[in-house]
Design brief:
By secondary structure, this protein is an all-alpha fold. It has a domain of 116 residues. 81% of the residues lie in helices and 0% in strands. It has five helices and no strands. Helix 1 packs antiparallel against helix 2 and helix 2 runs antiparallel to helix 3. The longest helix is centred in the last third of the chain and has 96 residues.
Length: 236
């Protein structure tokens, strides 16, 4: 089974975040040793920009998948949690790069975990959509329940359509079987009729041949009688 594109992109984005963390740690070590870190800073800025773009792309893909019902609500929530945690890490790495005093703990945590911890939820990082911005928690829950009910109704309708199509398929199959039986009967009838016709044709030819032979025999007999009569008839 082919891997999910969103999850594949998420894994590659986590690898970029891990690479940024390692580069920042290397830069800090160079700074402590009095070595030049300009090349590392350029590389870190490029990686951070790439990380930001990939996270935005993941966000767009997730919103599209949820709005078009390509994934279930449960899977959408799980991926949202992964994306929230990745956003948190991206902001921590950005702060570490700017040397605001948090890079030591952030880099140590990043290197020890080896990536984003899946399952951590921070729902306050993503921008809320305009549809739910003015809604209460109860309103949002009712909206989600309504969406689930609409999805269930759609699935029920789809199931009914598939059931009807299955019944139609069975009916068409039965009709085809009956038509095939009728065709077989007609084929047998035509073959029998053809055999009878050939037999009758042969019989007619035989009768015609016999009739012709009898006619010739009668003519010959009559000629012989005529000759005999002429022969015995007294002449004057």
């Amino acid at each position: 089974m082919a891997p999910d594109p969103w999850l594949s992109m998420y894994d590659s984005t986590c690898q970029i975040a891990q690479e940024v963390a390692e580069k920042i740690q290397e830069r800090n070590r160079c700074q402590r040793n009095g070595e030049s870190s300009s090349k590392l800073n350029v590389a870190i800025r490029s990686l951070l920009q790439n990380l930001k773009e990939k996270i935005n792309h993941l966000k767009d893909l997730l919103l599209q998948a949820i709005s078009t019902h390509q994934i279930t609500q449960l899977e959408g929530d799980r991926r949202q949690s992964l994306l929230d945690d990745l956003l948190t890490r991206q902001r921590q790495l950005q702060a570490s790069y700017k040397n605001d005093g948090t890079e030591t703990d952030v880099i140590r945590s990043s290197l020890m975990t080896g990536g984003v911890k899946r399952g951590v939820t921070n729902p306050w990082l993503l921008e809320e959509s305009e549809e739910t911005r003015d809604l209460s928690f109860d309103d949002i829950r009712q909206q989600q329940q309504r969406i689930i009910q609409e999805q269930d109704a759609g699935l029920d309708t789809l199931s009914s359509v598939l059931s009807r199509q299955k019944q139609m398929g069975h009916q068409i199959g039965n009709e085809l079987d009956e038509q095939n039986e009728i065709i077989d009967d007609l084929t047998n009838l035509v073959e029998n009729t053809d055999d009878k016709l050939r037999n009758q044709t042969r019989h007619v030819k035989m009768v015609d041949k016999k009739s012709t032979s009898c006619g010739m025999l009668v003519v010959i007999v009559l000629l012989l009688i005529a000759i005999a009569v002429v022969a015995v008839w007294p002449t004057k």
